[in-house]
Design a protein that fits this description.
This protein is α/β, with parallel strands linked by helices and 459 residues long. The protein has 3 domains: 221 residues, Rossmann fold; 78 residues, Tyrosyl-Transfer RNA Synthetase (Orthogonal Bundle), CATH 1.10.240; 67 residues, Structural Genomics Hypothetical 15.5 Kd Protein In mrcA-pckA Intergenic Region, Chain A (Roll), CATH 3.10.290. It is 43% helix and 13% strand. It is built from 19 helices and 13 strands. The chain has a 6-stranded mixed sheet with strand order 1-8-7-2-3-4, sandwiched between helices. Helix 13 runs antiparallel to helix 16 and helix 16 packs antiparallel against helix 17. The protein is globular and about 75 Å long. The termini are far apart.
Length: 459
């Protein structure tokens, strides 16, 4: 019973479930009284390749629902990525190439398996391009003509590769609904359906969003494609209900609440059972101010190596220790409350609590042994002043400067981040205990520290 209570309360900021419809289904499922699938939608636009602990708050909630017998549908917004969710954005998001979308999507699927159960009985994934892409959007890249055969492979015709017939064949052969999910029909969204949906949604309803109001108040541009994003996300829920037979709950961060409620509106106008909505608390980043975000470089990635992950957790502001225990670990909430009280009464050293937190988080993603090794490495490095073992070695040519080497070492993912590290005095040559402040500096042989927790050796 306590576990079930956590399911609907831990980390939950808003839960829209009129008449307790969804909660009653889950409780019946747990008791073996509900035999149908309970489908939970979680959508993500693959704009960046990394999944971090902020995403993991939602993923761990989804895993808890899977353990209760629910099925998670991971909706990858490869189509809507090209539009860009304006949530939290003060500017129009730049366009992203299809190649980047495909690469990011692949890493997403690999990373969610660190937390979710990916067995087909409780997990499925699908792209929203599967219904938003039309036949005429496709371009055949197979030469000037194609041969189309019948199902029995007896008769065939040759047609122009970019004719409607060829594109229709290509369309049918590339729909996940048919080829992966083995559905008989293919559900699509026509422009007339989009217009029909918009007839039920007022302009005033759309500009209720805080970020839209802020832009208008500041005299900044607000484009129609951005205002369309919540509508398309709502249509996604309606299509998932068609494809999977139901869409019982949509889950996301508190910044997605408006978009998720739009799904209820669209489902209602299509005479479908409306999805319930669960908005999860957003986890603050390492700066302690903004939500965790890769663009702000305040994140802990679920694929960060153990020592790096441990060290980053140790840099979490003391005030956020209870929140990280509640949202990023499996520590019982009763213990989290005790931790919060102990911090307030100064009965415990915050450093000790953070070491426990860091070890628990590393264990979730890398296992108990890696967590113990990362803890020992941290103690040796910061308490005993040692340089970690197995420091990565970097070789470079004389036309490469400190910015290039930081990228080669893996301590920076881009030149922008590398320059920021140098500007902030985060790069130290340990052999002489001097900071590197010149962007054009050619590094000497020796050991370098980047920030507090990362090291590399120039050979």
């Amino acid at each position: 019973m306590k576990k079930n209570e956590d399911l609907f309360s831990r980390g939950v900021a808003n839960f829209v479930d009129p008449d307790n419809t969804f909660q009653r289904k889950v409780e019946a499922k747990i008791n073996g009284e509900y035999k149908q699938d309970i489908v939970i939608k979680w959508g993500a636009d693959p704009t960046r390749p990394d999944i971090h602990l902020g995403h993991a708050v939602i993923l761990r909630k989804l895993r808890a629902f899977q353990d209760a017998g629910c099925k998670v549908i991971f909706l990858i917004g490869d189509y809507t990525t090209q539009i860009g969710d304006p949530t939290g954005k003060s500017k129009v998001r730049p366009e992203i190439s299809q190649a980047e979308i495909e690469a990011n999507m692949k890493t997403y699927l690999e990373q969610v398996g660190k937390i979710l159960n990916t067995d087909p009985s409780v997990f499925s994934w699908i792209r929203n391009s599967d219904w938003f892409t039309s036949i005429t959007d496709l371009t055949a890249d197979v030469g000037t003509t194609v041969t189309i055969k019948d199902q029995e492979n007896k008769n065939h015709i040759t047609v122009d590769a970019n004719s409607f017939v060829a594109k229709a064949t290509l369309f049918e052969g590339t729909r996940m609904q048919k080829n992966i999910l083995q559905k008989k029909g293919i559900h699509t969204v026509s422009f007339s359906r989009v217009l029909s949906t918009l007839r039920h949604i007022t302009h005033s309803r759309l500009i209720e969003r805080d970020m839209f109001k802020d832009r208008i108040a500041k005299g900044e541009e607000l484009y129609m494609h951005e205002m369309m994003y919540p509508v398309l996300q709502g249509i996604d829920s309606s299509l998932l209900a068609n494809i999977y037979g139901t869409c019982d709950l949509e889950i996301g961060g508190t910044d997605q609440l408006f978009n998720m409620l739009m799904g209820r509106d669209v489902m209602k106008m299509n005479n479908q059972e409306q999805q319930s909505v669960m908005a999860i608390d957003l986890l603050e980043g390492l700066d302690g101010k903004e939500k965790m975000s890769k663009s702000l470089d305040n994140y802990i990635g679920v694929t960060d190596e153990p020592n790096d992950m441990y060290g980053k957790v140790m840099s979490v502001p003391d005030a956020l220790i209870p929140r990280y225990f509640a949202l990023a670990s499996y520590t019982p909430l009763s213990e989290v409350e005790e931790i919060k009280n102990s911090l307030a009464s100064t009965n415990v050293n915050p450093r000790d609590l953070k070491m426990r937190l860091a070890k628990e988080i590393v264990a979730i993603y890398h296992g108990e042994k890696a967590a113990a090794d990362a803890e020992q490495n941290f103690v040796d490095t910061f308490s005993k002043g040692k340089i970690p073992e197995n420091v990565s070695e970097v070789a470079f040519s004389l036309d490469e400067n400190v910015v290039d080497v930081l990228i080669k070492s893996g301590c920076a993912v881009s030149k922008t981040e590398a320059r920021r590290l140098v500007e902030n005095g985060a790069v130290t040559f340990l052999d002489t205990d001097t900071k590197i402040t010149d962007m054009t500096k050619i590094l000497e042989k020796g050991t370098y520290r980047v920030g507090k927790i990362r090291f590399f050796k120039v050979v």
